[in-house]
Amino acid sequence: MKGIRVHRFGGPEELKLEDVPAPSAGPGQVVVNVHAAGVNPFDTYIRTGAYAIKPQLPYTPGADAGGVVLSVGDAVKRVKPGDRVYVAGTLSGAYAELALCLESQAHPLPPNVSFQQGAAVGVPYATAYRALFQKANALPAETVLVHGASGGVGLAAVQFAHAHGMTVIGTAGTDKGRALVKDNGAHHVLDHNAPDHVDQVKKITENRGADVILEMLANKNLAQDLAMAALRGRIVVIGNRGTIEINPRDAMARDASILGMVIFNASEKEQTAVHAALFAALEAGVARPVVSKELPLADAAHAHEEIIKPGSYGKIVLIP
Question: Residue 316 burial (CB < 10 Å; 0-12/13-18/19+)?
Answer without folding.
Answer: buried
